[in-house]
Amino acid sequence: MDKKKILRQQFNIQADKFSNWAITRNKEYMRRYYEFCGIVKDDTLLDVACGTGEYAIFCAQKIKKVCGVDLSSKMIEIAKKNGSELQLKNISFIAQDVFELPFKSDRFSIVSSKSAFHHFDNYKRIVSEMKRCCESSGKISVQDIVAYENPAVNDYFERMESLIDVSHNKTLSCDFITRLFRDNDLEILHSHTITIGLNLHEYFNHAIRQRKGEKKFMTLLIMGLMILK
Is the predicted pLDDT of residue 129 greater than 60, yes or no? Predict the structure, then answer.
């Protein structure tokens, strides 16, 4: 099975869990990212890999127009339902491969991708598409988990991530993301890093896993706890 099919299948089966995860629904994190992006009421936003649409819906209540795109039809189904319940008329959601965004060039004043880049593999392509869809005077933003500087620590958590969610590809470093922007001739206005505490039980259960993956995860977790001691 190719990577896109794995992603689509995994996102579809865990869409409800993802939507109900406390991190997904945390409005304080959404507010801080919204402010970081410098979004204003006349902006038009494209949310790339929007998941179940929580951030897109948050923004639609404040700005002119929002569109969310995601590979998963089930996640888009939930996003549409959530938007409809709030009777929002300025938001739309599309189930579509985000590497081929279905828009004309220079369409949006803000193009962002939140908590998604660690699922991607063709980073150059996705940034190129985000840039194409953004107005020349607009802004592009990427928010995601980032790699640990210590290679051994990073390798440990990469193994954990892959066992928790098979759709995980790779956690990128801040330097790598910076190079992605510069390689696409994008000026970096500012960057920001925050530390978020996670409930291990909630994090473990925000995705769907196979039984063998659960056993490997627990073994890896115990190994990590023994090292900490």
Answer: yes
